[in-house]
Amino acid sequence: MAQVTLTVNGRNYEVACGDGEEERIRSLSREIDARVRAMAEAVGQVGEARLLLMTSLILADEMKELSAGGGGNGTANGTTVNEEKLNERENAIAAEEKRLSEMVVQLDSYAERLETIAERLVQA
Prior knowledge:
mainly alpha, 3 helices, 69% helix, rod-shaped
């Protein structure tokens, strides 16, 4: 198990995490630090616990809005909105590939006709 030191609002916290997760935890910590600092600017330094609680409530509210408003990641069947969008795009790409393939076949047919016409004109 790895250990990382995180700094939030100027205070260091030692946190354990899985091996290889250190950078992800640091990145998340930077996001939390930015939000806690913004909260401190808005309401003042009202104590570390209160700032963390207020920031946590805002984050929880944002997550709730995202999941309830259709802009979130969860859906009823367990897939995520991003997965659904990816599937839609893959289906659209497959349909476009099929359409383009059909156009190539049609263009090949036109090319053969033009070659036949060109041969007749040369012989004439």
